[in-house]
Amino acid sequence: MKNRYFFARHGKSLANEQRIILSSPREGTTGFGLTEEGREQVRASAEAAKAQGILDEKTFIVSSDFTRARETADIIAAVLGVPSVTLSEKLRERRFGDWEKRDDRHYQDVWDRDRHDPSHTEEGVESVDAVRARTTELIRELESEHAEEAIVLVSHGDALQILQTAFESVPGSAHRSLRHLDTAEIRKAEGRID
Fold first, then answer.
1. For a disulfide at 123, which of 13, 30, 90, 98, Cβ 3.0-4.6 Å?
2. Is 37 contained in some domain?
3. Angle between helices 36-51 and 67-80 (to 10 degrees)
4. Burial bucket for residue 106 (CB in 10 Å: 0-12, 13-18, 19+)
5. Complete DSSP assignment for 111-127
6. Residue 194 lies in a domain
7. Is residue 182 within 8 Å of 1, Cβ to Cβ?
8. Alpha carbon distance 18, 32 (integer Å)
9. Is the Cβ–Cβ distance between 63 and 69 less than 8 Å?
10. 22 with 102: CB under 8 angstroms?
């Protein structure tokens, strides 16, 4: 691959704090941003990445347009001295359909089905296959437009876990078996997308 990619999961959000599933673009792009703890988590992660020389002011940042991801990207950009952030709907939260605004313990119900059928859309959930297709399409676009850059992808737990399966060349159904990203974690993407 021509670029180095880094996954950045948004910091602790109001939805995380309320322990609800919040995947609707209508509400996700207009509310439910970061908590104060989430902002501090992101600041600390970005400062650590900068101190280690992993990321700098030349880093290209692409973010989901959901408020919690945008706020995360803006903090990372401020810490690194990056002048702007590019938004992409392809990095949005996975849509959880009928589970919207319900207790976050229902994630497990969806993930159990994912293991057996990555194409399922039960209860109006966006399939693993669909998330993988849209996120890998973004990577291909970035590969055609950029070269030799460090690119940070600011997104959400499920979207990044599923994209990680593409980088590691494992089935999308295995996304929950891969090492999970903590809130505000910035991690180098290992592997490649063909």
1. 98
2. yes
3. 40
4. middle
5. HHHHHH-TT--GGGPPP
6. no
7. no
8. 10
9. yes
10. no
pLDDT tens digits along 20-78: 999 999 999 999 999 999 999 999 999 999 999 999 999 999 999 999 999 999 999 99
Q: How many structural domains compose the chain?
A: 1
Structural domain of 46: 4-188
On whether residue 193 sits in a domain, the answer given is no
Q: What is d(CA 13, CA 36) in angstroms, rounded to the nearest whole number?
A: 9
CB 125 within 8 A of CB 110: yes
Which runs of consecutive H residues, i.e. helices, occur in the chain? Answer: 14-18, 25-28, 36-51, 67-80, 107-116, 128-145, 157-167
Asked whether residue 140 is domain-assigned, the answer is yes
Helix-strand-coil split of the chain, %, nearest 5: 50, 15, 40
Tell me the whole-structure pTM to 2 decimals.
Answer: 0.97
For residue 103, the domain's CATH number is 3.40.50.1240
Taking the C-alpha atoms of residue 60 and residue 167, their distance in angstroms, rounded to an integer, is: 19
> What does the pLDDT average to over 80-107?
97
